[in-house]
Specification:
By secondary structure, this protein is an alpha+beta fold. The protein has helices at about 5-95, 100-115, 130-135, 165-170, 175-185; strands at about 125, 140-145, 150-155, 160-165.
């Protein structure tokens, strides 16, 4: 074989080798591009998931803040209504020191005696010390009891009681008073309404 032929053969081998290297390089380039595309897609997916997680956390925080705010408003409303009821109790206590109180005391006492439904000689009256003179006008035995006003009629054996003290009357009307206070203060009838 001559130099020419050897040169041609070397050139042909070199072209084949160059073609093979080029083909390998292209395959490697495609693998790199595919890996980069996969990495890009994963990064986008991770960013999307992280964004969703951040949005959910922010939504949870906003929801939690809204609940805390509603709770604070409800507590403030309850406190305002409790203040109205406390003021009503204080007003009743002040009323017990007025001239009109004697008439109301007599009406409350008679209602309690009637509610017991037993002969008057089997009943005694309980009232605050300041009302003993009013109670004695009823012609019944009198015992003092802690209250801010009003009266209780009690059977002689102490087992049956009809109580018309300011505390009991206020407690029996508490729900109605709360409803009216809410309506007056907030324009709503429901004690537990939050808005």
């Amino acid at each position: 074989m001559g130099i020419q032929e050897l040169r041609k053969e070397i050139e042909a081998d070199a072209r084949k080798e160059a073609s093979r290297i080029k083909e390998e390089a292209e395959k490697e380039a495609w693998r790199i591009v595919e890996k980069a595309e996969e990495a890009r897609k994963k990064m986008l997916e991770d960013a999307r998931l992280e964004g969703e997680a951040v949005a959910k956390e922010e939504e949870r925080r906003i929801s939690s803040a809204n609940l805390r705010a509603k709770h604070a408003v409800a507590e403030a409303r309850e406190a305002a209504v409790a203040g109205v009821i406390d003021e009503t109790a204080a007003g009743l206590k002040r009323f017990a020191g007025t001239k009109e109180y004697a008439r109301v005391f007599h009406e409350l006492a008679e209602a309690a005696v009637t509610e017991l439904g037993m002969p008057r000689e089997k009943i005694f009256i309980e009232c605050r010390k300041e009302d003993e003179a009013l109670a004695k006008k009823l012609g019944l035995p009198v015992k003092t009891a802690p209250c801010s006003g009003g009266v209780a009629a009690v059977s002689a054996d102490g087992r049956i009681r009809a109580t018309n003290t300011f505390e009991v009357l206020l407690e029996s009307k508490r729900d109605e008073l709360k409803r009216k206070a809410f309506m007056g203060l907030f324009g709503t009838g429901g004690v537990n309404q939050i808005g």
